[in-house]
Amino acid sequence: MSPTALALADPPDETLDAYPPIDPPEGARVSEADYWAHYYEHENGYEWNNGILEVKPVSDVLTLQVYQWLLALLRFYLGTHHNARFTTLDFGFRLTLPGKVAIRKPDLGLVRHDNAVPLEDLDRSYRGVFDLCVEALSDSRPAEIKRDTEQKRQEYEAAGVGEYFILHHEPHWQLFYRRGPFGRYAPIPRDDGMIRSGVLPGFQFRLSDLLRQPEPEALIEDPVYAPFVLPRWQADRAAHAAERIARQQAELRVELAEQSARQERAEKEALLAELARLRAAAQDGPH
């Protein structure tokens, strides 16, 4: 058989080069289409920065505990106010920025219900711009610190993210920004050692509590958190306490009434006994 016939009978597999590498290194160049098709849901947690793959760094345990405590506090808030939805970890959004496009996956992204682009039940990425982004900082390399504290801050600011929180177990790396009227980020005021969100009215926390991480039992007794931490439970508890007090007061009134009745009977019996004695004495006296 001629070489030509062999070629026709067994053509080369041209599909082998149609798929990008399964596990490319950080810094590899891929198209946005390939990113969405092959790397958006990749186990390496890739983000995409204008054609470059970036691996999301891992935070240490102490920083993750700070993040998880704030996440739990946010769940309490949303369970009370029902004014927003949030995503975590591998849920990304596309940022159209001056001179470039990026796809970021904040550790927490929040969408208010009045956002022009709602977060839908079946979404796997967010088509709009988050109202609040939270990143748990990794400090294992200077480049990772710079990515969250500078690069992403600039990107989120330019994209229109209303507030940006950077969490860490060291207070000097705890950074909180709010977008001002001219579109620029400014540090959120730390009045009385507290952070008060403008994106989520009424959501607030003490900076010191990011490290103390008080339990829910303590939060419901704290005036800072009581307005949005299990208020129904608090109301039920207050109602049960009021019922218990009312029951105790009713029982006390009954007991006092019974005690008064017993005393009245005893006094009456004593009076009757005294009258009987006087009659007897009068009958036994001189005739």
Automatic annotation (TrEMBL):
Keyword Plastid recorded: no
Xref: SUPFAM superfamilies: Restriction endonuclease-like
Any coiled-coil regions, as ranges: 242-281
Pfam families per UniProt: Uma2 (PF05685)
Gene3D superfamilies given in the database record: tt1808, chain A
Region (Disordered): 1-23
The Putative restriction endonuclease domain, residue ranges: 41-206
Keywords for this protein: Coiled coil
InterPro entries, A to Z: Nuclease_put_TT1808 (IPR012296), Restrct_endonuc-II-like (IPR011335), Uma2 (IPR008538)
CDD domains: DUF820-like
Matching PANTHER family: SLL0198 PROTEIN-RELATED, SLL1222 PROTEIN
Protein name: Putative restriction endonuclease domain-containing protein
Naturally occurring in which organism (per UniProt): Thiorhodovibrio winogradskyi
